[in-house]
Amino acid sequence: MKLYEKLADSIGDQIQRGVLLPGDRIPSVRQTSLNHHLSITTVIRAYLLLESRGMIESRPQSGYFVRARSVAGTKPAPLQAATPDASAEPSQIDISGLVLSTLQSIGVDGAVPLGSPYPDTALFPLQRINRYAHAIARQQTFWGVPSELPPGKPELIRQIARRYLENGAAVDPDEIVVTLGATEAINLCLQAVARPGDAIAVESPTFYAISHTIERMGMRVVEVPTDQKTGIDVSALAKLIESKQVDACLLMPNFHNPLGYQMPDERKRELVELTNRHHVPVIENAVYNELYFGDAPPGTLKSYDTQGLVLQCASFSKSLTPALRIGWVLAGRYRANIERLKLLNTLTTPSSAQLAIAEFLENDSYDHHLRRVRRTLMQHASLMRSAVERFFPEGTKMTNPAGGYLLWVELPRSTDSMRLYKSALDNGITIGPGCMFSRSGNFGDAFRLNYSYAWTPEIEGAVVTLGKLASRYAALQRKEEGEERDLAIR
Predict the structure, then answer these.
(1) I need a labelling partner for 155 at 20 to 30 A (CA). Which of 75, 193, 211, 438 fits?
(2) 27 is in which domain, residue-wise?
(3) Which intervals hold domain HTH gntR-type (predicted)?
């Protein structure tokens, strides 16, 4: 390879990897000549080669710049995130690696983020909240002792308690401990109610971060069968509790990730009566509670708790702003322990973020914002369900979410969703394959879709592509099954 070709390939590789972005200025010919110990003629030839490849452009009197990528009429380049072997058996799939590669692929330029676990930030009043945060930060002074010590800023705690009251639930403000998002809240609760080696019951399927958190703490995940409409099987959970196979529960009864259901209130009451009777603590993940599609807020496990054994975790990340990462725990009888663990784990939660949200809740119309978000998500859910029904093969099933922004889709005839996942990546589309949501590798014929994003031609086109790919693999599955039957008959 000639010197100018090597230089062109080196710069081109930096562009492909995102080190140099569209609009970035390329070092001048003279500077590149000095840096690489090459002649000016060699550098010019390399730049001309990059121009011919459509990667850079010359601007008179300004130099060379990375060329903007064409958007219309082009197929996204295959995503470069490392992907697991789609042909592997479910038990052989590295679920942690699969989760990481899926999250990495969501950030790749041009990817359609149907596999994202996060809501579209366009739904949130980020600029308004950021203005509050910046103004508060400018006014703050430091007196040597952090003002963010647990349980949190009184202004925010009061607003959280008021929010519960507005939703029909009176809570004790002294029970609230502010955290760095719901993730820290769940971590603190697990540390407070269980020890390494303890067994934690979860729904099956369940959000992969829950299982990872439990196992990272040296605890064991116990998956309990879960209905797509009514939630965890309480009778199955009762057998596990009565046989001393469960030490605590970590559940998401409202707008479950990934299934989207809202557990009926009667089943919630039955579950809490069971766990209270056996003195089993329950961590209730309530991060999606404000994103309901009905006329009234959903009931909670916490509302049926009479012994302080239900610890409810929530945050503003899914309903107001993911940027500030503010959550909280209604800690019940574990309040003092949660506060101590918060101090030991992260010491503080930034006061400017707490006060900014408190200011927004005090002065802006949070209810108006939520009504708009709920209406938008409900419309998007309807559009996504209609598109899946229209474009996916016969026999495809899906949930009917009661809130949130996630849709669970089951492919026909045990069609392998890992095949679909890999082909979707090759087409610049991300999905959440079902095996991510079970430590035992179940749900290999299912996947999760995020419908929070604006319904654009790009989103619709991605769903159409997924439908075509799913139809291809469903037909292949039928063919393979037919061949196996023929062999059995012979």
Answers:
(1) 193
(2) 3-66
(3) 1-69
